[in-house]
Amino acid sequence: MTTVDDFNFENKKALVRVDFNVPLDAEFNVTDSNRIEAAKPTIIKILEDGGSAVLMSHLGRPKGERKAALSLSHICDKVSEVIGVQVKFVDDCVGEKVEKAVAELESGEVLLLENLRFNAEEEKGDKLFAEQLSHLGDIYVNDAFGTAHRAHASTTIVAGFFPDKKCFGYLLAKEIKAIEKVMKTGEKPVTAILGGAKVSSKITIIENILSKIDHLIIGGGMTYTFIKAQGGKVGNSICEDDKMDLALTILKKAKDLGVQVHLPVDVIAADDFSNNANTKIVAVDDIPDGWQGLDAGPKTLENFREVIHESKTILWNGPVGVFEMESFAKGTISVGNYIDEATKNGAFSLVGGGDSVAAVKQFGFEDKVSYVSTGGGAMLESLEGKSLPGIAAILEA
Ligand code: AMP
User: How much distance in Å is there from the Cα of 198 to the middle of ligand 1?
Assistant: First the structure.
């Protein structure tokens, strides 16, 4: 895997695709600079080598139109503050003006281009647009995992213009290694904890990872499709009746592969989908009508704890309850704590895909797990076993 460490950027201009799609408040202040921080090591390496960096990113969804509210000029000061260098800005991303700004860039300097998605060609993966971008650097660096699953001009197509002058930034390399550690080289036992609302949104992941894991913990709303499929009574719990056959097929496949599946045995049932609902602990397969399971019960958590504690590699995707409501957050917090303990005992733990990261951040587990992925959709597609175009474009000769 070629990374920025394989290049000396002295007197070179690096064209770096970053993911600076950061949240802004009404006054256009950056409210969460994590994504800028995440790209910092790559930018610093380029500058310390004696090179300069041309940063390109998208912000929001302008859909090919110039929208003042989505200009990357708003984040220029924040990027300067994080990187520790006064970042220059040019209000376009291709063309003469931009090429002039790049030509004037000196070693140690950073130039931020305007929002790539002001040009419809970006999302279309337009080759001509990508070629124009390719004029803006000697070496192409992709450090944007969040858009690695998109075959856009700046994430994928542009790489074709740098046949042997392209590489991964540190962040993207870290993401790839974390996925490999779970899917290919993980120390056994490998455990996947899958939660979230629906079987249908996780099915491709389950199918892809079954042959790579030893334990599958199923939690959250998905549980009830599995329980009902086996003849259990799930009351008013969320359930996809049309996915019950699929649930049974998964259980059979897991058995054939020797994967131990751990479903909840008891749940916190509520008489309403509300934080203030009446609750009681019931067996997962005997939920009364009018009641719905919204969190994992105490016996279930005890079982999950045992499995997680003995795991050496852990993947967590999806909450095991309706964590947004305080009354039903305990299960998800407990799972986070068990992963924290396992990690302290030497396990490698990866959290990522979809909304899982929100739960992890909300409860402060970010620094307690081995790795939190920066890309929701890109991580989901990786776990589904898909090749990500942004990654493939760098790996291609
Ligand atoms: P996902 O994006 O698929 O990981 O799903 C996350 C959502 O699943 C969260 O918003 C949770 O509130 C929801 N969820 C988890 N457990 C349940 C449950 N028992 N019933 C309904 N929704 C749930």
Answer: 7
pTM: 0.90
* Residue that wins the pLDDT comparison between 34 and 391: 391
Q: 78-97 pLDDT, tens per residue?
A: 999 999 999 999 999 999 99
Same domain, 124 and 199: no
- Write out pLDDT tens, residues 119-128: 999 999 999 9
Secondary structure letter of residue 236 according to DSSP: T
Determine the Cα–Cα distance for residues 204 and 192; give it in Å rounded to an integer: 14
Distance from the CA of 196 to the center of ligand 1, in angstroms?
Answer: 4
**Which positions ≥6 away from 279 have C-beta within 8 Å?**
268, 269, 270, 271, 294, 327
Amino acid at 392: A
The pLDDT tens digits for 239-265 are: 999 999 999 999 999 999 999 999 999
Judgement on whether residues 155 and 196 belong to the same structural domain of the protein: no
Q: Which domain holds residue 164?
A: 4-172
- Is 219's C-beta closer than 6 angstroms to any atom of ligand 1? no
> How far, in Å, is the centroid of ligand 1 from the Cα of 379?
18
For residue 133, being part of any structural domain is answered with yes
Active site residue 12: no
Residue 332 is assigned to a structural domain of this protein:
yes
- Is 292 a residue whose pLDDT tops 90? yes
For 338, the token pair is: 């068990």
Query: Does the beta carbon of 354 lie inside 6 Å of ligand 1?
Result: yes
Last residue of a domain, one of 126, 141, 172: 172
Q: Verify whether residue 198 is a known catalytic residue.
A: yes
- The position carrying tokens 């213009």 is 161
Give me the mean pLDDT over the 341-356 stretch: 90
Instruction: Tell me 61's DSSP state.
Output: -
Tell me which of 13, 17, 35, 202 is the catalytic residue: 35
Burial 315-330 (b: 16+ CB within 10 A, else e): bbbbbbbbbebebbbb
353 is catalytic: no
